[in-house]
Design a protein that fits this description.
The protein contains no helices and three strands. The chain has one domain. It has 76 residues and is an all-beta fold. Helix content is 0%, strand content 24%.
Length: 76
């Protein structure tokens, strides 16, 4: 499992680019994962889900809030 570290107290830009059969995942315009051939494995069209990915089993010690400035979907 790939875990990408990011300070959630700071602004970040996340993106997924579908390029041919590959998927490029970026954090702040830096490629963090290349899913070669990953698009071939998708059984249905993609859609956006905005949430926190809580990975550790530790209990949450405070409230979490996510502020989203914008979401963009485009075709080339």
């Amino acid at each position: 499992m790939l875990v990408q570290q990011a300070n959630l107290d700071e602004y970040h830009e996340y993106s997924v680019e579908w390029s041919g059969n590959d998927m490029v995942f970026k954090l702040d315009d830096t490629e963090v994962f290349l899913g070669t051939g990953l698009a071939d494995e998708l059984a249905e069209p993609m859609f956006a889900v905005l949430n926190f990915a809580k990975i550790k089993p530790d209990p949450m010690s405070s409230n979490w809030a996510m502020e989203v400035d914008w979401v963009k979907h485009e075709y080339r």
